[in-house]
Amino acid sequence: MTDTTEPDTTEPDTPASEMPATETPASETPAADTARTVAVTANPFAVDDKAVLLDSKKRRYLIDLADDGEFHSHAGFVRHSDIIGQPEGCRVRSTKNGEYVVLRPTLEDFVIEMPRGAQVIYPKDLAPICMLADIGPGMRVFESGIGSGALSTTMLRYGAEIVGYEIREDFANRAKTNVRGFLGAEALERYDVHIASSYDGIDPEHGPFDRVVLDLPEPWQVVPHAEYVLRAGGILLAYTPSITQAARVRESLKGKWIDARTIEVLHRGWHIDGQAVRPDHRMVAHTGFLSVARFLGKNETA
């Protein structure tokens, strides 16, 4: 008779004291979690930092933090000491129970809320200007009509080195203050501002330049001067509010210039709420025209 009983293959129980230890991955240990939290919440707000307060209606308020400072609004006031030492993204309440989210300002926030004397170029045009003019690290830029310094701050943020002409000393001082306020004092080493009119000429000792960027009522008056300080292959860009100004600029960009064009940037937001999607009822339409061309060199013609 054949024995059909299957052999018992069950292994004997191993005492817990003899079982191999299971290692917990370092990334899952409490210490690792703490390290990650510290890394994420590092760099708390400090005295002299800039901060943006966003209220429940997403209105933005730019402040400079001070030991004994207070931010006042229709919703009461917030002590700066409630923000100092806190991480970005913290929430604070005013004396009338208004809630604010506190963030560090982006360049867009700063340009919109920054102190100003002259009207600034707004973000929807600043980014295209830097793209069309090909602004980048180490580029030597001649800028005229610096106003409150919004465009200067943006180009310096891109890494450019700027020589600026401004006819009003109060505007020049405001621009330097704004540059220092957002980028730090070291940015002023790449920002050389002169009280001068580019209509009268550009000092050759300040050049040569890779780019010329103009925000002036009559930029066509500067084009002949730019031809003496702009390197071959360089770019000139002029920002003008009216199309008649743009037409005059384009008329001046002939002979030694090529690839001239003029564009206008329209900015339309969209309302998105689940499946309800539509364009916003309002948009930022015309602000200015951007005219740009490349220089062939003093001895060349198109």
Q: Can you describe this structure?
A:
α4 packs parallel to α5. With 302 residues, this protein is an alpha/beta fold. β7, α4 and β8 form a beta-alpha-beta unit. A 7-stranded mixed beta sheet has the order 9-8-7-10-11-15-12. It has 7 helices and 15 strands. The protein starts with 29 loop residues before the first helix and ends in a 7-residue tail after the last strand.
Q: Write down the Rg.
A: 29 Å
Count of helical stretches: 7
* DSSP helix fraction: 10-25%
Q: Report how far apart the termini are.
A: 109 Å
- Shape designation: globular
Low-confidence stretches: 1-5
The secondary-structure element order is HEEEEEEHHEHEHEEHEHEEEE
Main sheet overview? 7 strands, mixed
Strand order of the largest sheet: 9-8-7-10-11-15-12
Query: What structural category arises from helix and sheet content?
Result: alpha/beta
Assess the beta-strand content as a share of residues: 25-35%
Task: Offer a few descriptive terms.
302 residues; alpha/beta; 4-stranded antiparallel β-sheet
Topology of helices and strands:
Elements: H1 30-40, E1 50-54, E2 60-64, E3 70-73, E4 76-79, E5 91-93, E6 99-103, H2 107-113, H3 123-132, E7 140-144, H4 150-157, E8 161-166, H5 169-183, E9 191-195, E10 209-214, H6 223-226, E11 230-240, H7 243-252, E12 257-264, E13 270-273, E14 276-279, E15 289-295
Helix pairs in contact: 4-5
How would you concisely characterize the structure shown here?
It is built from seven helices and 15 strands. With 302 residues, the protein is an alpha/beta fold.
